[in-house]
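HUMAN: Quick job: go over this next protein and say how the chain folds.
***
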Amino acid sequence: MTLFKEKIREKIGDNALQAALDGNAEKRVKGRIAAFGSIPDWRDRRQKAHAVRADVIEHLDHYLDQFIAKVKENGFVVHRAATGEEAARIILDLARERDAKLVAKSKSMASEEISLNHILEAAGIRAVETDLGEYIVQLRGERPSHIITPAVHLRRHEVGQLFTEKLGIPYTEDIPTLTTTARAVLREIFITADIGFSGVNFGVAETGTLAIVTNEGNGRMCTTLPPVHIALMGMERLVPTLDDLALFLSLLPRSATGQKLSVYTQLIHGPEEPDSFFRSKRQEKHLIILDNGRSKMRASPLREALYCIRCGSCLNACPIFREIGGHAYLGVDGSIAPYPGPIGSVVSPGLFGLEQFGHLAQASTLCGACKNACPVDIDLPGMLSRIRAGIGSEQTAEGIGMPTPVKLGLRGFRWAASFPRLFGTGQRILGWLTTPFSSYIRIPAITGWGYSKDFPRPVKPFRARWKDIENTTSTQPDIFLKIEITKAAEQVVDISPPKLAEQFTTELTLLGGQVHPVTANELASGLVEFLKSRGIDRVQSWDEIPRLSLDRLVESGIRVERIADPLIKAGITSGLVAIADTGTLVIAAGKGQPLTASLLAEIHIAVLPVSKLISSLPKALQLPEVRKSPSTVLVTGPSRTADIEMTLTIGVHGPKELHVFLVDDSQTG
């Protein structure tokens, strides 16, 4: 606890950190409110999501059996790991058996939990984080300081100095330049990696689907390009059906980054077919399902913390996290907790013990902001209170992290509060005695809270106050958020909704994509004109593109390749469908339809007939092609990041531009 207090004082005195945390909190909270404005029924969705997660945790063994059976049927090799050490050993064995020297890692909090990078590096295997924020903190030798934004604690000048020192570039504070540098360095990692590693946001029990949500494109690179893909998933990260997945995908991005959908939502069912550039044979897929204390936690009063979908929203809302940041959450031994913030103050003690991390629950005002921000309505204040009382995955002495005077005071308070008349009388007497001196009385500093707080004046007894407000109704703590969301919803809702094509165009344009409306007869000439205007004479394309004659491109001097090549500047695909209300393309892999065509090039061109537009995500996930495809990706704009000072930068590891040629096919077929 002493180390924890010292670290808190250090972080509060760090002006650069305070500015970074303030900027993160303000932008994230505002973004979340605006994003939820587009779904006025968000309260109902939130409660339904809570019920789904409760059902999964209650019947976890059943859902795991169903999920594992389907995943194996889809072509994955499934491994169960009871501990973090066992999970790391499985990954290490897989790497050694394949003589792997380089692992490209997508973002995974579970891998942080088991210290995977250190274990691989100790065995002589290079593990490189490819999420921009994770890459930055890895270069600094640090842990992530936020679940969603790992480098939230850093300012641009610190990243500039880091890249000069580690990557040898001239010093710059220009964020697009820093991002472009990381893109160039990590592109070589993706192409040469022996193994691609990822986490898993959701596993779908009915279909054996792995859902992975990212913005930068590094997740797609790690799961698509290397000959071997290893996924690590906490055993609780399941949803029953694809309909349930659609529900959670409407909540997770809005809560995490203020987006309707993340740029890339991957739905992986099994290995992709050989690719002559990257793979000469079918890709190898492994899934490791991690327990590491989750079973113990599931059987404890902290089980509701397993409902968490790792959106990080509670961190952004928490007034304590906003002041101290993720690196202040220290264990008794001085190690940084794997999970910070309100949820981390429950999950870390729940998984790794109250003795090591139980005191983190004291870093909370119990104001309820975390619960109000949670998209699945987890009762974080209730669980933090349980941990403070010494109730967790194992029972310890009461009053975790509390000084002895505070423990004795609370015991006395509890005794007095059990006698209503005595308690009320005591309130009145203390009020009379302390009123003249209330501004001079301080809480003793030994409590840890008495450095600047006045002694609270005892208030009027509850029963007396209740009579004064008996005919009024109280508001919920999140009332201001609800008011803002209601206003946003009123602005978004249109009495006469636009046609799907207009809506899709509007949404994609807001995301930085471009829509080119054409007729079927104009498609080929319009596409050739676009390519030549960019100086492009070579493209990667699918074998067949509906409404487009690839021969027309060849006749116009455009060389059409069927295989992936990192030097090609443009890739052409079609879309299975497009979702109008989010501006999303749904692209399914298949024979002659490699996902690399939508991933590697700087410019992604998609050809889409207007008849393939649909209204919403749930409809897209019900398509048979989505279930049959080894991998489907939902593309919502060009790749992007905001990992440096929350500054949006377009074009990271995926395409920098997305162009949709929207073909009017109303007069054909």
The two ends are 72 Å apart (CA to CA).
